[in-house]
Amino acid sequence: MIIQPGIAKANLGLSREDVTMEDHPLNPNPESRWNTYFKDNEILLQIDKDVRRLYPDMAFFQRPTDYPCQLILDPQNDYETLRRRVEQTTLKAQTVNRNRSGVTNVSVNFFFHTLYLGKHGMNEIVGPIYYTFATDPNSQWKEHAEADTFFCFTNLMSENRDNFIKSLDDSQCGITYKMESVYSMLKEKDQELYFKLLEQNIKPQYFTFRWLTLLLSQEFLLPDVIRIWDTLFSDQDRFHFLILVCCAMLILIRENLLAGDFTVNMRLLQDYPISDVHTILTKAKELQDNS
Description:
Blueprint: H1 33-53, H2 70-73, H3 82-87, H4 94-97, H5 108-115, H6 122-134, H7 139-143, H8 145-160, H9 175-189, H10 191-199, H11 208-213, H12 222-234, H13 238-252, H14 254-259, H15 262-270, H16 277-289
Helix pairs in contact: 1-5, 5-6, 6-8, 9-10, 9-13, 13-16
């Protein structure tokens, strides 16, 4: 919960406290609670945008959750919810306004976004995890989908966090090294295709950044993403296997890439044409076995 400066906690028995003498909305002091409050608003707007972009065509992410936080729904509490904060800004949260409580299945992503401020795309990783837990046929497990998602998400990010630390970009655990690893593997497996991409100056950063950081969650439909992740997470060296999957994706469209020019090939790589993930995973396993 985020509390607007001047609003006391409900358990203090007060509805408001006068803070104008020590702080006010125009206070330029970096430690001002109002200054922090307004900066949080900017972050919440970005969160709101990302959340509404998460599988907008899926009814699951737009409908009210079956297990909302009762504290948020309590009209007597003095906490200002994220929903209310967003509604007070110039950008309206359309998906939130669709139901009175404003607590949708997609709202869970607000919480996880606040853990990784500035890391756009985290909702793309949270989404499949939450969907898997929240659609479990066991109602007792489904009820705790948010807690289970939090546990799995934080554990996954503890392994994957180096991709989002700029100071580590060029180290062996950074994202630049991993993107170049896709091309290094491609050079080993298919030199003709590798040199074709180099000739056209198609750098791995142009497409593998999204593939690797978001674990291919934007390249395929949600059921296919879950299928890929099922194989990915079952591998002990899961992030190396992800590089194999990316390499397999390139090799499977090699004929198109060899025949295309820069524009055509960039379109292929940014809107991957193969939807059969079983074929991709089979090819990745083949590359792994032949390594």
